[in-house]
């Protein structure tokens, strides 16, 4: 008979899709250590079932418009910071691939966003990001810069979409597409959530790179948002090229 230590070691090697087989193989082993592992496995499987149900709801809009062709989720991040660009993402997800844990990027940990970024970029039919930088934001205002970044992201896609799912906006420059505006769309649509994630990860990586050039502002940690330390640095050193002059007027 296998020892509990051996079974535990085996359990740790298993992917979640192998857990049903593990439960079937060891469920009748009445040793408490094995039963504890069975309990853990069942909890993981129950959580997986719950996540699949959540993701099924997250595909409701994609399924609604599926007969129209390619469905593209569009979202932006970085409207509120004092420094750095606004970044938009556009993603066409495959309808026959399961990608779990997609959600509004703000609801995910940095580690989870990074993991999902790699999965999205690997599995997406098409995915693009685009920036509007601080200078452009000052020239045309943040809303128009948002629209411009979204337009660039969509127009750069290698596959032309038929329907755009957007988070509570309508983009005038994308009138050639059917646009579906969804309130809190990044928490209701898998495609919008995916766009939110790749935009967030791309922008965060960019701000970490800019931290090397401008270490005094702490961009690696604050990503350009108005933290107390960032505002103090802004008062001490003045703005750099990444700062939005229309946002920082009362701080300098």
Give a structural overview.
This protein is α/β, with parallel strands linked by helices and 252 residues long. The protein folds into 2 domains: 4-58, no CATH class; 61-208, 2-Layer Sandwich (Nucleotidyltransferase, domain 5). 50% of the residues lie in helices and 12% in strands. The chain has 11 helices and 5 strands; from the N terminus they run ααααββαβααββαααα. It has helices at 4-12, 19-26, 32-58, 60-64, 110-123, 134-140, 142-155, 190-213, 219-222, 228-237, 245-248, and strands at residues 71-77, 86-92, 126-132, 163-167, 178-182. A 5-stranded mixed sheet has the order 3-2-1-4-5. Strand 1 and strand 2 form a beta hairpin. The model has no long low-confidence stretch (mean pLDDT 96).
Keywords:
252 residues, Nucleotidyltransferase, domain 5, 11 helices
Shape: flat
Order of strands in the sheet with the most strands?
3-2-1-4-5
Mean pLDDT reading: 96
Largest sheet: 5 strands, mixed
The first-to-last residue Cα distance is: 73 Å
CATH architecture of the largest domain: 2-Layer Sandwich
Please indicate the percent range of residues in DSSP E strands (runs of 2 or more): 5-15%
**CATH homologous superfamily annotation of the largest domain:** Ribonuclease H-like superfamily/Ribonuclease H
State the name of the first-level CATH class of the largest domain: Alpha Beta
Number of strands: 5
Secondary-structure content class: alpha/beta
The sequence of SSEs as H and E is: HHHHEEHEHHEEHHHH
Number of domains: 2
Q: Over the alpha carbons, how many angstroms does the gyration radius reach?
A: 22 Å
Please count the helical segments. Answer: 11
């Amino acid at each position: 008979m296998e020892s509990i230590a051996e079974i535990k070691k085996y359990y740790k090697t298993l992917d979640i899709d192998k857990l049903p087989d593990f439960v079937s193989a060891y469920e009748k082993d009445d040793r408490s250590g094995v039963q504890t592992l069975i309990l853990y496995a069942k909890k993981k499987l129950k959580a997986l079932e719950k996540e699949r149900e959540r993701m099924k709801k997250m595909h409701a809009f994609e399924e609604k418009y599926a007969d129209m062709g390619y469905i593209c989720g569009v979202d932006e991040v970085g409207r509120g910071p004092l420094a750095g660009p606004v970044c938009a993402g556009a993603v066409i997800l495959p309808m026959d691939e399961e990608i779990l844990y997609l959600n509004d990027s703000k609801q995910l940990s940095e580690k989870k966003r990074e993991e999902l970024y790699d999965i999205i970029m690997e599995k997406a039919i098409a995915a693009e990001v685009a920036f509007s930088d601080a200078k452009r934001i000052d020239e045309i205002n943040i809303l128009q810069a948002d629209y411009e970044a979204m337009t660039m992201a969509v127009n750069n896609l290698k596959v032309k979409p038929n329907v755009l799912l957007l988070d509570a906006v309508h983009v005038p420059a994308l009138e050639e597409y059917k646009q579906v505006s969804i309130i809190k769309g990044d928490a209701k649509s898998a495609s919008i959530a995916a766009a939110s994630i790749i935009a967030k990860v791309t922008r965060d990586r960019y701000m970490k790179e800019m931290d090397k050039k401008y270490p005094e502002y702490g961009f690696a940690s604050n990503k350009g948002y108005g933290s107390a330390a960032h505002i103090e640095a802004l008062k001490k050193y003045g703005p750099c090229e990444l700062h939005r002059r229309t946002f920082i007027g009362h701080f300098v």
